[in-house]
Each structure stands twice: as C-alpha cells, then as structure tokens.
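Worked Example 4.2. Read the sequence first, then its structure tokens.
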Amino acid sequence: MFSTPSAFRLAAAAAFAAFAGTAHAGYNVWTGEYTFSKAELQSAVEKKFPTTLRYGELVSVKLSRPRLVLDEAGNRITTQMDAVMTNTVIPTPPVNGTMSLNSGVRYDATQRAVLLDKPTVQDVQVQGMAQYGQQLNAIGAVVAEQLLKDYPLYTFKPEELRFNGKEVEPGAITVAPEEVRVQLNLK
C-alpha cells in the first residue's frame, strides 16, 4: 500500500494529526484521562485569595499567597498559605504565620466539577504562639470548612464529557507530583 517507509510515516503522521485534532485540551486520548497541571490547579485556588475570615467575634484571619503541594503518596492536595491573625476585641498588633490545609479530591456529578474534599488542618505555625496550638488548630478547622470545603478546582463543560457521540463520566482521580489525572469512563 505504501511504496516507501517515509510515505508510511507521512500517512501515519497525518492520521495522528487528524485524530489528535479532535482531542480536548488536557485530555489524553491514549490513557483516557483528563489532566490538570499543578499550575492550572494553582490558578484555580488563587481565585479564593486573598480572603479574610472571622473566628467567633474574637479573631480575624487574613489568608493570602496560596501554594499547592500535590501529595502523590496520600492522593491529596495540600494548600499552604500565609495567615495574618488579628484580635478583633483588643487592639493588638497582627500576628503573622502560615497555615496548611490538606484535602482529598472528588468528582461531583451534579456540578460536573472536580472538588477539594474534606479539608483538614495539617499545620498552623504562628511566631511566638506555640502554646496556643490547640486554639490555632481550631481556627484552622473553621478556615478549612469555610474556605476550601467542596471548592471546585475544575468544572467540566458538557461537551468535555462527550467523545465520538458517547457520554463519559469522571472516575478515579489520581494526584501526581505535578498534575492531577481524572480517568474518564463510558457511561
């Protein structure tokens, strides 16, 4: 059929280009996975910041500069952020620190979105306040619940869940060091 090896390579390249042209951005036709880079996820989380939350009527917590760490071993995402805490009752200088929240990742079919799931406090570090670890963790738990619980990292467009006329649905989600992969399965 092909007279030379180079003609075969040219035909194969043309077929691949035509096939790849139908793929969606971030979708890998070979693995059946949708991939989100760490940079894309970072950008999605940054939309929530800076933000200020209140803990009771006593403490105001301003959060900024989120930094994602993708934990392959735990299949989780850690969000590290700068925290500035201010006593809202007694005028005192603000206290600087960092907070890390650790979240799972899940898919919600109703929203067609990949969400952060069940965030928990991983670490709260505040200069000179080690003796208040329990209270700081309580503040962190409130922050996790208010800020990142069910936060959408990506919302699929309807056409992204259809390939060659067939509907697909996200399945297993895998966190890797530089990306999150979502397996797509036929419905």
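Now turn to a second chain, presented in exactly the same format:
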Amino acid sequence: MNIFKRIFRIGQAEIHAAVEKMEDPIKMTEQGLRELRDDLAEATEAYAKVKALAIRTENEQEACQKESAAYAEKAVLIMQKAQNGDISLEKGEQLAREALSLRRKYAADAEDLGRQAATHQQSGKEMLKNIEILKENLVKWEKELKTLRARVKVSKATQQVNKQLAQLDNNGTIAMLERMKEKVEDQEALAKAYGEIAQEKNDLKEELDNLLKDDSLSIEKDLDAIKEKLGIVTKTDE
C-alpha cells in the first residue's frame, strides 16, 4: 500500500485545482478518500488473515511441542520395559532411538513454527500500525473535505455576487438609478417652489385686505372723542 503517496496526492488535489484550475478539488479529494477507504478495507482484511495465520501457527507449534514431549516420554517407557525384561534390550534401544528421533523432529518443527509465529505477529503489528495511520488520515481528510465543500460554496457565492456587481453598470442599472434620483429631486424642488408661490399669494392677499379694510369705525371713534372734549352733545347722546 502506498499510503503516504495517496495522502500526498490528496493533499495536492486542492493545490492543483486552485492554482492550475485543471481539476475539481472536491472530486479529487473524494476520489482520494475512496482510495483510502479501499486501502483500509484491504489492510484490515490482510491483517485478519495474518492474525489468523499467527494463531494457527502458534497452535501448530504447541501441538509439535506436545508431540515432542510425548515421544520423549515414550523413549523412557520403552527403555523401562527393556529394563524389566518385557522386551529385549536391543529391541528397546531400537524403538527408543526412533522415539527420540521423532522427539527431535517435532522439537525442530516447534522451533521453526515458533519463528514463523513471531514473524506473523510482527507483520500483524506493522499492519495494525498502518491501519491506525489510515484511520487517522481518513478522519482528517473527511474533515478537510467538509471544510473544502464549505469553502467552495462560499467562493461560488462570492464569485456570483462579484460578477453581478461587475455587470451592474454594464446593464445601465446604476445610471438608471441616478436618473431616477435626479427626477425625484426635481419633483421635490418643483413641489417646494409651488408651495412658496402659494404662500406668497396668501401673503399678498392679506396685505391687500389690510390696505382695503374699512376705517369708518376708527374715524367715528376719533370724532366722538373730539365732541366729548368740546362738550358737544348730540341728540343720540341725549
């Protein structure tokens, strides 16, 4: 498994896509994650096989050790029978040699199986370590993918807004808004002018009314005052 090679390639996905704009960083990262998951599945399966092989080898080693010990006991029992006269010494030695030969064979097999089991266990440890690295990188890059997706959404939205802003004046929208603003200002100025003209007319009318107002009542009062001073009494006063 080229674990670090794949990780490096995933790491390059965003750089190449952003700088060279040749590939989609989201798709590149998703593809890298799929490959990492495949690697993880393969590594897990391989680890399980190596683990099973180590267990089977240890069981075979234990069986060989038992066989070796059993043949060692048989050699002793055979020589005891020869000593007791149950079988001849020559026959006993012959059978004992065969038993001891098998004991050595099973002992040698047990040692070989022990070395194999140790090798399998070491391989299993290394594979388990690689599996942990794969898991850590999967978690890391899944988080990176979420962040990357969010960044892509934001960049697309920003790009769209900036594009609209860039094209706004090209469509004459700003110029149209400026003209509408000027038109409203002109209408407001015209309304104010009409209001001032109406106020001026009211002021003129009031001035004319004051000038044309009847002063007869005031004159009569002045006349009455003179008559009172001179002591002239009119019939009305009587």
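Notes for the reader: The mean pLDDT is 80. The two ends are 140 Å apart (CA to CA).
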